[in-house]
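Before drawing any conclusions, I looked closely at one protein's amino acid sequence and its backbone structure tokens, quoted below without any editing.
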Amino acid sequence: MRVLIIEDDSLFAEILETFLGEKECQTIISKDLLSAKSELLLSPFDFVLLDNHLPDGDGINFLHFIKELPYKVPVMMVTAEDDQSVMSNAFDKGADDFLIKPFSVNLLWQKIQRNRELYDKEDEIIRKTIRLEKLINQQEQEEKLARYVYEHVASLEETETECVDTYIQSSSSFNGDVFICDTAPNGNRFMILADATGHGLAAAISVLPLVATIRAMIRKGLTLAHIVHEANKKLNKELPDDKFVALIGVEVNFNKQRLQLFNGGMPDVISLRTDKSLELHSSTSMALGILDPEDFDPAIVTLETGPIRNLFFYSDGLIEQPNPSGEVFGMSRLLALFKRYDYQDSLVAEIIREFTEFNDSGELLDDLSMCDLQVEALMEKHLNEKKKVVRINEGKITATLEIEGPLIASTDIVGCLDSIMRSADMVGDLRQRAFTVFSELISNGLDHGILDLDSKLKTEVDGFAEYFQLKEERLENIGKEEKLSMKFAYSPETSEIDFEIVDSGKGFDLNKAKDTDDNALSGRGRDLINKLCKSVDIVAPGNKTIVNMKRDS
């Protein structure tokens, strides 16, 4: 690996050169930006280590030159500046990673390998994409490469399988149905079943872009409503007018013992209740990709998990499949099966058995997918599960963070706090509850404090889109005087978290907040915060909140 070290500290540069030499790297040292520019133009490098303050300029301002080179090379900023604004600026201008001096050379090597690996994978995908385009008129080669890409993207991550029984069968070489099951940082479990228009390669191309996007949003801690809204926005922009994606989305909240359900253009979701009755949940929204973001309203239904034993959802390939006689499987046949289901065997296995017999092993006319979410078993397993782990119970972590001006809009504040908790190896249930509380408080401070948004918009027809449109507009115009301040303290000895957040907003009427049912902290989300925290104090005029959380015994 060829590494360019842009560093004016001769001793530090020599240390890096010696260490990388032991890793069989070929290194070249440039003590200023001018010589570095000559080296980069002379021959390609595999990695660049860049100091910020150099004799002839700042390294951050040199990033644009590196990113405009005819070849792609990862760049890691290596500087003694412990300033988050500098880090953020570096990433905005194209830095791939950041290390603050002094640091472990072993950590440096791990980061170099990781970033180089990511670039190599990206290059590999680009090369295969180019190759696919060249072979587009050669059907056999196109099929081979397209299948590789499809299988690679569709299986990027292992999905959760706990109390979730699924079945997916393609009607051709490619499948337009995709299932995602993943857990958010706050512990909520997501199940997503998407069905693209038609079937085969065209349908697969329509739905696959959603896989990575939805996973990323789940792992960032976004709600189901936000995920669906953003997925619609992406598909509306990227898909042709005659293409769309029907989708079922389920978010299970273990703390509140509720689940949220989105049905956009899919068949009725069937709820098998503990009293053996059935309840149908019809589509409450258009399929994704049809409506413009400002016209799309993700009508989310909230259900208590207590009365639900199983939640079954599926694509229309199940009920619309005809047998050799031309008779369709139909909803009535499916409901009749549910009514006589005795829970002795897998529900999905029962349905597949009857469907196969009905279809007489005939060819599928559409992709077939189904999911049986065993709600009762999942809730019981989660609530009764006790993790026996040995953890350090001494010491304390205290962190203070203040963000000003437009940086408030671009900083992943919740992610920063979650990183602190992860680094402390905090007990899982406490960290999950804390993530939920932080998200709610920070969202409250930003949306309803600094941006002065009215959460009542989200309860009105078409209000959700208006809410997000206003939010985007106001985020772009955050004043330099705005501030968001946080204090975080964690004691492993008592398993307690103290958290304080102050926003520069005007606050709210505390007396009025007590009389509203709105879903945010000033009446909005107060019930959720109170349930998850040991104590909650809102300080007048309402723009300062102090909470204490303790691990459940």
User: Anything to note?
Assistant: The first strand starts at residue 2 and ends at 6. The chain has three domains: 2-122, 136-383, 397-550.
